[in-house]
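lol forgot to send this yesterday, sorry. C-alpha cells for the thing we talked abt
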C-alpha cells in the first residue's frame, strides 16, 4: 500500500521515491478527485493534474484508490511554531472535525488509536470500529416489527383476506400477522452501510479485520444503499442514547457532501473537506459555546438580505458567514477567511484582500451593523500574539469599524473559546468608540 501525505497547495512529483508517487496511481487519484463536488468546472478543484506531478488545492482529507492513499492536510500552522509535523496538523484537523461534527473523540483517544502513524481516514475508521464494537457488545438495538408468514399454527392474528385467497388451496397453513423483535431497523441499517463503505476504504490490516467482524454482526440486517437510508426513522431515546455519537460518525462517513465515489471503471473513494467551510463551521461552534450566558448568540449563513432591488424583486442575496445577535439586534458580523496572512514587513495590508474588505463594508451597510470582523487563521510566520487591527471605515475617527483578526488553532479547545469570546466582547463593549481608529493609524481603506 502506497501512502503519501502532502499539505494544501503543495506538489508531489511523479516517481518511485518515498516522497514521490507513481504516475499510474496519480492518474487514478486525480480521476477520483474529479468526481468530488469540490472539483469545480475544470475538474481540478481538489488536485491539479500536471505533467510532472499532482498539486493539492484548498481541500483536505484523503483520496483512496486500490493500493494507494493520498492524505491532504491543512497548511496553516499554529502561532509561534515552525516546522510543524504532519502528526500535529493531523491532530488539529481531527480536532476541528470533532468539534464541528460532534464526533466522539475523547482527550486520550488520539494516543490510543495511533493518530501519529495513520492517515485521517484510517484514524476515523479505527475510531468508528472501536466505538461500534463496544456498543454491539452491550447489545444491538431491536424494535418490534410487523411480520407476515404462513405457519402451521396460529401466531398473532389471522390475515383473513390472504387466508381465503392466496392460501385457499393450502388449508394446512395459516396466514399469520404478528410482531417480533427484529434488528432490521433504520439505526442498524445505517451502521451496516457505514461498515460496508469503510470495508472498501480501509487499507490498514487491523481496521480490515475489525470491519470483517462487524460485517458478521450485521449479517441479519438489510443492506440498504446510502442514498436510500431512512435517517428520519431513527429515534434516539433512553434505551439507545449511547448510539448518538456513533450516529454522528456514521453521518460523516456516509454523507454525500463530503464523500464521493468515482464513476466509470476507476475504483476509489474520497473523504474531503473544504477548509473555508470547515474553518467557518468550527469558529461558529466554538463561538456559540463561548458566548453562552452573555446575552449574545451566533447564527451562520443567515441574513439573506438582497444587495439590489429591481422594482419589487431582490437581486444578489447575501449570506454573511457569522452574525452575532443580541436579541433581535445585529451586533457584529464576522467573515471567516481560510487564507494565509502575511507579516507587515512583507505587506502593509498583510495580504488582506480588497474584495474581502468591500464585501464586509457592504454587509455593514445592508445589515445596519457598525462593527464587522475579518477573521483569519493564525500561523507561525506571524508575531506570536493574535492579530487585532481595528480600522475606521470611510474616514478617520468614524464610528463604523472593521477589525482584522486572527484565531490561533494550536492549543486546547478552552484557549480557542476564551480567545473568541474575548475578541467579540472586547469589540462590542468598547466605552469610547472614537478611540477605535486613532488619527495616527494608517488610512487603511483609503490605500486599498
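and heres what i got for the seq, position by position
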Amino acid at each position: 500500500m502506497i501512502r503519501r501525505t502532502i499539505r494544501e497547495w503543495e506538489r508531489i512529483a511523479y516517481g518511485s521515491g518515498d516522497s514521490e508517487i507513481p504516475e499510474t496511481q496519480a492518474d487514478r487519484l486525480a480521476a477520483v478527485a474529479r468526481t468530488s463536488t469540490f472539483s469545480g468546472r475544470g475538474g481540478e478543484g481538489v488536485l491539479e493534474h500536471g505533467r510532472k506531478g499532482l498539486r493539492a488545492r484548498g481541500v483536505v482529507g484523503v483520496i483512496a484508490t486500490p493500493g494507494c492513499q493520498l492524505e491532504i492536510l491543512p497548511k496553516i500552522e499554529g502561532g509561534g511554531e515552525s516546522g510543524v509535523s504532519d502528526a500535529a496538523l493531523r491532530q488539529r484537523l481531527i480536532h476541528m472535525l470533532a468539534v464541528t461534527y460532534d464526533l466522539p473523540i475523547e482527550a486520550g483517544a488520539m494516543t490510543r488509536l495511533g493518530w501519529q502513524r495513520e492517515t485521517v481516514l484510517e484514524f476515523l475508521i479505527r475510531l468508528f470500529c472501536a466505538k461500534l464494537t463496544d456498543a454491539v457488545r452491550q447489545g444491538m438495538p431491536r424494535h418490534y416489527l410487523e411480520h407476515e408468514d404462513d405457519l402451521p399454527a396460529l401466531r398473532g392474528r389471522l390475515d383473513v383476506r390472504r387466508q381465503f385467497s392466496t392460501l385457499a388451496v393450502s388449508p394446512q397453513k395459516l396466514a399469520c400477522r404478528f410482531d417480533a423483535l427484529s434488528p432490521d431497523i433504520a439505526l442498524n441499517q445505517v451502521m451496516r452501510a457505514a461498515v460496508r463503505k469503510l470495508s472498501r476504504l480501509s487499507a490498514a490490516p487491523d481496521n480490515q479485520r475489525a470491519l470483517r467482524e462487524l460485517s458478521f454482526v450485521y449479517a441479519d440486517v438489510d443492506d440498504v444503499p446510502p442514498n436510500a437510508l431512512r435517517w428520519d426513522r431513527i429515534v434516539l431515546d433512553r434505551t439507545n442514547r449511547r448510539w448518538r455519537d456513533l450516529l454522528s460518525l456514521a453521518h460523516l462517513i456516509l454523507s454525500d457532501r463530503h464523500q464521493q465515489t468515482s464513476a466509470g471503471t476507476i475504483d476509489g473513494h474520497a473523504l474531503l473537506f473544504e477548509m473555508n467551510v470547515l474553518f467557518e463551521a468550527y469558529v461558529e461552534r466554538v463561538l456559540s459555546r463561548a458566548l453562552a450566558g452573555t446575552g449574545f448568540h451566533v447564527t451562520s449563513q443567515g441574513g439573506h438580505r438582497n444587495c439590489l432591488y429591481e422594482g419589487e424583486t431582490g437581486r444578489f442575496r447575501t449570506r454573511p458567514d457569522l452574525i452575532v445577535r443580541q436579541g433581535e439586534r445585529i451586533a457584529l458580523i464576522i467573515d471567516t477567511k481560510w487564507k494565509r496572512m502575511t507579516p507587515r514587513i512583507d505587506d502593509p495590508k498583510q495580504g488582506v484582500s480588497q474584495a474581502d474588505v468591500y464585501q464586509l463594508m457592504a454587509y455593514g451597510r445592508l445589515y445596519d451593523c457598525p462593527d464587522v470582523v475579518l477573521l483569519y487563521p493564525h500561523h507561525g510566520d506571524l508575531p506570536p500574539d493574535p492579530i487585532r487591527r481595528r480600522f475606521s471605515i470611510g474616514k478617520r475617527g468614524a464610528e463604523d469599524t472593521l477589525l482584522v483578526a486572527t484565531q490561533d488553532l494550536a492549543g486546547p479547545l478552552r484557549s480557542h473559546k476564551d480567545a473568541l469570546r474575548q475578541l467579540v466582547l472586547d469589540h462590542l463593549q468598547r466605552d469610547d468608540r472614537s478611540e477605535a481608529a486613532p488619527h495616527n493609524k494608517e488610512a487603511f481603506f483609503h490605500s486599498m
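Residues 257-264, 431-448 have pLDDT under 50 and may be disordered. anyway ping me if u want another try
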